[in-house]
Amino acid sequence: MGAAAEEKVVAAAAAGGAAEGNAAVDSKDLQQQSKALDKLTDHVEDRQLDSSRVQAAMAALASSKEADLKARRLREKELAAVKINPTDVEIIANVLESDKLTAERTLREHKGDAVAAVRSLLH
């Protein structure tokens, strides 16, 4: 064999050794990447919800909603009981260019006081 042939064999062996070395490095990199991925994707075990706690929370929400609805109904009854002057409703609606329902509601909220209702609508 000539010197050139021997150099090719040595170069090929070196390349093979480097390839084996790269394979070992690649294998280590893959293992590290795999471990890192496992850490990212580890899932905490799902907790079982206590059904009694869920039922208590749902009951609290329902009672809160019902209490709000009851308070709203009571407020609407109070507002409906307020006596207002229909002329005031017309004047406020025309002057402020608003609808009659808004004018009436504002008058009721201010106990029929037209001046206070107008001030409220202007602010």
TrEMBL record:
Q: Report residue spans for region: Disordered.
A: 16-38
- Tell me which stretches of the chain form a coiled coil: none
Domain of life per record:
Eukaryota
Q: List compositional bias (Low complexity) regions by residue number.
A: 16-25
Q: Where is the Nascent polypeptide-associated complex subunit alpha-like UBA domain?
A: 82-122
GO-annotated biological processes: protein stabilization
The name on file for this protein is Nascent polypeptide-associated complex subunit alpha-like UBA domain-containing protein
